[in-house]
Specification:
Order of helices and strands: HHHH
Strand content: under 5%
Number of helices: 4
Shape: elongated
Radius of gyration: 22 Å
Largest sheet: none
Number of strands: 0
Length: about 100
């Protein structure tokens, strides 16, 4: 398994993007909770609360995809590394590729 400096930089970048996406999702969930409390206490109107819920829900779905775009490149790197190291066999893949009936 020979990883170049570019490959290691890609792994580091994907790791940072993943942690940023997790933090962003937590912030969006906290914003949803705060808006719910504000709605319950009457500080927000129902229409405003509905728009906030829709917007924040879409943000929580889209943010990990927008922040973590390099994940497809990481998958390509992992596929290349797996194909280079053909001597290592994955026991899970072998177990799943067996046909039922023990053959």
């Amino acid at each position: 398994m020979n990883l170049t400096d570019k490959d290691i930089a890609l792994i580091d970048e994907v790791e940072r993007a993943s942690s940023r996406a997790k933090v962003a999702t937590i912030v969006v969930i906290i914003a949803l909770a705060i808006s719910l409390v504000a709605f319950i206490y009457g500080w927000l109107e129902s229409v405003t609360f509905a728009y906030m819920c829709v917007g924040l829900s879409l943000m929580s779905i889209l943010l990990p995809r927008l922040i973590g775009r390099k994940q497809s490149e990481l998958v390509a790197l992992l596929v290349r590394v797996r194909s280079e190291s053909s001597t290592l066999k994955d026991p899970i893949t072998e177990a799943l590729s067996k046909t039922p009936g023990g053959t």
